[in-house]
Amino acid sequence: MALEDGRFAGLRVITSIGELADDDSVVVGVDMPMGETTPGARASEAAARRFLGRRRSTIFTPPPLAAAVDDYDAAKVTAISVTGKSISKQAWHLLPKMRDAAPHWARDPERFREVHPECTFAAMAGAPLASSKKTREGLDERRALLSARGVEIVDVRVKGTRPDDVLDAAAVAWSAHRVATGVAVSLPDPPERDAEGRPVAVWY
């Protein structure tokens, strides 16, 4: 999802963050954990859960990147050695996407920003949303919040995606626009820093 001057400018489905590495976007919002501080205990998740309150269950603890191996049983052993806890198969399936995003974020953390759509929608509404994005009510509420900010998503049916995926992408793009215009807020504020001094946070 691309925005120009805060307005919808296009949508395409990509398979790798690398496809955006050389485009002309000032800021790229990514709905994916990026940056490790204390594996299994980033301040980002704790801050996002406090921010979302009743919707805190939408925030999960990301698996450590060290567990990005091809065998699930080996990944669990690695996760336990790094964090003291195992990982679910769902978290393990997320690791290839995290590994894909990691080098782009590491090279340019000011351009690639982590965004959680539910935090963005909560910021738009002034409170965590009551409805799940999987319901018709939840979809309509999220579309209305975007529309009120000039992001008109008329048809959310895009081949290879679900309607909530498209609305989440629009929310991520809206937060990226806020980063580009200098008005975004980080969770936590100020951001936590990794071992190389890079900012690690969720932005909205």
List the uncertain runs.
Answer: none
Q: How many strands, what sense, and barrel or not for the largest sheet? A: 2 strands, antiparallel
Principal-axis shape: globular
Mean pLDDT: 92
- Strand arrangement within the widest β-sheet reads 1-2
* Tally of individual domains: 1
Count of helical segments?
6
Number of beta strands: 6
Q: Spell out the helices and strands N to C.
A: EEEHHHEHHHEE
- How much of the sequence lies in strands comes to 5-15%
Radius of gyration: 17 Å
- How helix-rich are the residues, as a percent range? 25-40%
The secondary structure category is alpha+beta
Q: Alpha-carbon distance between the termini?
A: 16 Å
